[in-house]
Amino acid sequence: MATERSFTRSARINAPPQAVWDFMMDLESAPKWIKGVVSSKQVSPGPMQAGAVIRETRTIGKRTETYDIHVKRFDPPARYVAAAHAGKAEFEYGFELRDAGGATEVTMRATARGKGLFTRMFIGVGMRFMEKVDGDQLERLKKAVEGRA
């Protein structure tokens, strides 16, 4: 039986959805809005699409780790879902962008899920950590996108 925990955040960004999408998909921009990201690059061949793999290096506290992130859904400029695995746990981030009269309403859902007794116990701790590190991610995205205009 799998255990799942999540949190959701929303923000209104004063830029059209395509501009927000383009900024989010520019992997070199990741350090500007994703806390701790040192580098982010696509390592799979071909265009960015569902099935693509992104290698991301993050520093959190004193630790630096590299993860392969698998794109699960890619529907420009409206939906993007990607996930990384750590043991039996999966950490997923999904973004939905909606036009709001020239601005963009962005919703982010961060989900941690896993199987096994230890992993189920770890999921709650993992989710609290995700929320602490990335709970303000959309505010950072808003600041970065609006600062470019």
SSE topology sketch:
Layout: E1 3-13, H1 17-25, H2 30-33, E2 37-42, E3 53-60, E4 63-75, E5 79-86, E6 89-100, E7 103-114, H3 117-134, H4 137-148
Antiparallel strand pairs: 1-7, 2-3, 3-4, 4-5, 5-6, 6-7
Commentary on this structure:
The protein is α+β, with helices and mostly antiparallel strands and 149 residues long. The protein has one domain: 2-Layer Sandwich (Alpha-D-Glucose-1,6-Bisphosphate, Chain A, domain 4), CATH 3.30.530.20. It has four helices and seven strands; from the N terminus they run βααββββββαα. It has helices at residues 17-25, 30-33, 117-134, 137-148; strands spanning 3-13, 37-42, 53-60, 63-75, 79-86, 89-100, 103-114. A seven-stranded antiparallel beta sheet has the order 1-7-6-5-4-3-2. It is globular.
Give a short overview.
The protein has 149 residues and is an alpha+beta fold. 29% of the residues lie in helices and 47% in strands. The chain contains 4 helices and 7 strands.
CATH topology: Alpha-D-Glucose-1,6-Bisphosphate, Chain A, domain 4
Domain count: the total is 1
Poorly predicted regions? none
Shape: globular
Number of helices: 4
Distance between the termini: 47 Å
From the 3D coordinates, which CATH architecture would you assign? 2-Layer Sandwich
Largest sheet: 7 strands, antiparallel
The amount of beta strand, in percent, is over 45%
Radius of gyration: 15 Å
Strand order of the largest sheet: 1-7-6-5-4-3-2
Total beta strand runs? 7
Summarize this structure as a short list of keywords or feature phrases.
single chain; 149 residues; alpha+beta; Alpha-D-Glucose-1,6-Bisphosphate, Chain A, domain 4; seven-stranded antiparallel beta sheet; 4 helices; 7 strands
